[in-house]
Amino acid sequence: MPGVRIGTSLTSSLPAGDPAGGAATLVGRARASHDAGLDSLTLGDHHSTGPGAYWQNTPTLGRLLAEWPDRTAGCLFLVPLWHPVLMAEQIGTLASFCGATFVVQTGIGAGSASRAMGTDERRRGADTELRIPLVKALLAGAEVSEPTLGIEGARIAPVPSRPVEWWIGAASRVGIARAARLGDAWYGAPSLTIDVAERQLATYTDACADAGREPARIPLRRDVFVAATDEEAQRLTEPVVGGGYRGFDPSALLIGSPATVAAGIAPYAALGFTDVIVRHIPAPEPAILDSIALLAEVSALVAGL
Hints:
Elements: E1 5-10, E2 13-14, H1 19-35, E3 40-43, E4 53-54, H2 57-64, E5 72-78, H3 84-97, E6 102-107, H4 111-117, H5 124-139, E7 144-146, E8 151-154, E9 164-169, H6 173-182, E10 185-187, H7 194-211, E11 219-226, H8 230-241, E12 254-256, H9 258-271, E13 275-280, H10 285-302
Parallel strand pairs: 1-3, 1-13, 3-5, 5-6, 6-9, 9-10, 11-12, 11-13
Antiparallel strand pairs: 2-4, 7-8
Helix pairs in contact: 1-10, 3-5, 6-7, 9-10
């Protein structure tokens, strides 16, 4: 049985003042992640941004797949904000450029995004329940109609010729049960402490048993920074972590040398998490590229967990 796999979720929220420079940053991080031997590359999904910029998921991933030809890749879709036919078309096209499993990560999105996109935030859960099966059917080559959405006789091409996995992020019991019924994996949030992760994983395991489903893998997001020493990692991240980074409990962050970061992953591996998808804590770009390179050492250390 393989040990824990390390993937990357590239931060596509960057300063708005230099669009070409931001794009080059994303390409450079994707190349560095591939060189480090990371298992997967994914991007997020966000809308109505500002004052910072957000490089949108599908065109950005299309470019980055040129740097990532042979491993798992994918992106997040905030399902209630996407028309099912458009979402399926984007996935089918991206999957045709992906040389391995394509991952569809899903979530219901925040209320502010719903309001900006003109959708009813009160229906986010119901819309997710409705739209995921429609997208799956379209990706399987079926013809789809759904009167409540005005969809009649829809088909898409290309459809994926390689596996597609659905990772469904959720924190509530209802959402975790949805992940068990409709997804191939529940995607643990980056803010989870070990105690909360254990409780939510138990909820997911029970929901899988109720649904008669076996998860393909159990991934967990972590915010991370790796340096040669613990002291160097702390120094480089203190400007943002010291201010209460993202409101996270500091124990949910992985900051330190390769050995320290691997030791921080071990308790989650013991619970049963199979993949740790890292997002880098902001720091000067050369330090982030160094951190990505050091993830190769972290991967080697956790490969046997």
